[in-house]
Design goal:
heterodimer, A: 229 residues, alpha/beta, ten-stranded mixed beta sheet, 8 helices, 31% helix, B: 405 residues, three-stranded mixed beta sheet
Chain lengths: 229, 405
């Protein structure tokens, strides 16, 4: 089984650790596949504007640099640890109202996707790029983070676009998601070193990006584990 | 004023003691780095095969690199035995990756649940020792990284008649979090200084358990691992017994690295509380010297007891500055990678160490790898009672600890 984490932030957005150190942290711990998913935040709300003001977001003007840095680290991680590093982003539509807010992971992304677009446009662009779409932390979280309910509250409308739902995020498990029997994965939502020890995904597939995407989409051979030291 | 003068005198004595430790580190390094370096030591032609026993439990910072550094040894014949208690340990996967990456190396991953004693590290070592093939064994903790000539450097000491055990000085490296910086500062100053001082000036045998090389015959002559299965400081007891059996215990020239990158402050405090309890049980009254050798804590006591006056504040600041400069000198001398700004945290670390110095006087239990033990004389372990009145004491402590956490 491949030990995986598909929701990781670095200093390119609001993570506290540089990209190369994050890759080393996971490589040294024996992970098989990780995805770097820094925030791309919307600009059409006061919260979003703040994120842009303090540069807690990947922007269109530094997206290429961000992707190149991930590609460089991916090559290094593969040669040193045999670990896959998948480029991605977390589309973060943040509003005061939790019911309007949503975060979406786009994994194995090739081009920039703006968080200001409407949901349908984002999903369609992700499909066009053959990126994996994951609805992240779709339900109530136990920490002080702002909840993001929009995708879950509108699941009948969006489920067809979403490849997997985050059934567990860091220390939380979302039982309501499990009851719907949607495809699922579990991630750390890594921002600090201690977040390494949290929920993770186990995949029974070959260690390559295509096989991993297929495994998640088909939701066969997927398990979750609470990774503890 | 009398109280201030007492603490001021103790602080100044502490600074002098620390100066002696700096001197010991300097002389140790100059003695051991000048004539030999790396491959030049191959002139001894003494390269017996070595079994490296690596007890693994959980993920240490930098674990992959730590284990990998043993695959890069410039040494003719050696085997590496990664020993674990169960396959679900996250370290198992890392050991597996190393074995797969270096198929040409003689690496064994041995998983066996052994509960011969109370010391979990020794429980891990007993099966590894049993399957080891070679006459020399090297016990090496999973949290150390070594350079290419490590084995050559340490084995050459075994060619000297009478040597029974070779250990190494430890240098703290890395440090991205405050807890990790504290740990590295403490390893590089207090631990490095004390071990160098005892070894160079007092000729006391010092064994650092992170790296111990010995012959199987010598270990068996002093009772083997079964003889230390119920002690917390198995390294100290092995060294002591080796010394008593007439064999020399020496520190090698080769400094090994302990990479600590993302420690929390709680982990730092837990480790040094445990080590403090261990030294209190082993050293008894000698343990008091540690407080006297903490000039920063001594200098802060008047500030706390007499209140913040210009005199007490200036004295505490001056002693802190002197101590931080001493830390910096040692750090530069041993070539650690700590940033210059990290040394500002040194006095704060010393105050914390001063506070936890008192804990061993109040408690004789430790929690190690999830188990609670009572420590007795010479760090002899015994299980905590699970029933009866005294068990409630530990349950109450555990509840308070959980609430605070």
């Amino acid at each position: 089984m491949l030990l995986c984490d598909f929701h990781i932030h670095t200093k390119y957005s609001d993570g506290s650790i540089e990209l190369n150190k994050v890759v080393d942290l996971y490589g040294q711990a024996g992970f098989d596949a990780v995805a770097i998913t820094d925030h791309v935040v919307n600009k059409d709300s006061s919260i979003g504007k703040l994120a842009h003001r303090f540069r807690y977001t990947v922007r269109e003007d530094n997206f290429i640099e961000y992707m190149e840095a991930i590609q460089y680290e991916a090559a290094r991680a593969w040669s040193k640890y045999g670990m896959l590093v998948i480029p991605g982003i977390e589309i973060s539509k943040n509003y005061i109202d939790s019911d309007k807010s949503a975060h979406i992971l786009l994994l194995d992304l090739k081009g920039f996707v703006s968080a200001c677009w409407d949901y349908e446009k984002i999903f369609l662009e992700a499909k066009r790029q053959d990126a994996l779409t994951v609805a992240c932390h779709p339900h109530t979280m136990s920490d002080m983070s702002k909840d993001t309910y929009h995708l879950w509250n509108n699941r009948d409308r969006y489920a067809k676009y979403i490849d997997a739902w985050e059934i567990a995020n860091r220390d939380d498990v979302f039982n309501v998601v499990s009851l719907k029997k949607y495809p699922y994965i579990a991630n750390s939502d890594f921002h600090k070193a201690r977040h390494l020890y949290s929920w993770k995904t186990l995949l029974n597939c070959k260690k390559d990006v295509g096989a991993i995407k297929q495994c998640i989409r088909h939701n066969k051979g997927v398990a979750i584990t609470l990774f503890r030291n | 004023m009398v109280l201030f003068l007492i603490f001021a005198t103790l602080s100044i004595i502490g600074l002098f003691a620390y100066t002696a430790q700096i001197w010991a580190v300097r002389s140790y390094r100059s003695l051991h780095t000048a004539p030999h370096s790396g491959e030049n030591n191959s002139c001894t032609n003494f390269f017996p095969p070595i079994s490296i026993l690596k007890p693994l439990k959980g993920l240490d910072d930098n674990l992959f690199d730590n284990l990998e550094s043993f695959c890069h040894q410039d040494y003719p014949q050696y085997e590496i035995i990664f020993s674990l208690q169960n396959e679900n340990d996250p370290a198992f996967k890392v050991a597996r990756m190393i074995k797969d990456k270096y198929p040409q190396k003689n690496i064994t991953i041995h998983v066996e649940r052994c509960s011969s004693g109370l010391n979990p590290k020794v429980n891990n070592l007993i099966p590894a020792y049993r399957i080891s093939k070679y006459p020399y064994i090297l016990i090496s903790d999973s949290n150390v990284t070594v350079r290419r000539h490590y084995l050559k450097e340490i084995i050459r000491n075994m060619a000297t008649p009478g040597v029974g055990l070779v250990s190494n000085l430890i240098r703290g490296m890395g440090g991205y979090s405050v807890g990790a910086v504290f740990e590295n500062l403490h390893l590089n100053t207090f631990v490095m200084g004390s071990v160098s001082f005892l070894d160079r000036f007092l000729k006391m045998p010092c064994v650092v358990g992170k790296s111990m090389l010995m012959r199987k015959t010598d270990l068996e002559a002093i009772g083997g691992f079964m003889g230390v299965k119920d002690v917390l400081a198995e390294d100290y007891v092995i060294g002591k017994r080796m010394h008593e059996s007439g064999k020399r215990v020496i520190l090698s020239r080769h400094m090994i690295d302990n990479v600590n990158e993302y420690w929390g402050i709680r982990k730092f405090l837990n480790r040094h509380t445990r080590w403090g309890k261990l030294r209190w049980q082993i050293g008894g009254a000698k343990y008091c010297s540690e407080l006297l050798c903490n000039p920063v804590f001594m200098a802060f006591l008047p500030l706390i007891i007499l209140g913040p006056t210009r005199l007490t504040f200036a004295f505490a600041a001056a002693v802190s500055l002197c101590k931080a400069m001493g830390d910096f000198i040692i750090g530069r001398r041993i070539g650690t990678d700590l940033k210059a700004s990290s040394y500002v945290l040194g006095p704060l670390k010393d105050v914390l160490i001063g506070v936890i110095w008192f804990v061993p006087l109040l408690s004789n239990t430790v929690i190690w790898r999830g188990n609670r033990y009572i420590i007795g004389k010479d760090s002899q372990l015994s299980s905590c009672p699970e029933t009866g009145i005294s068990s409630w004491r530990y349950r109450i402590f555990d509840t308070i600890r959980a609430r605070v956490a």
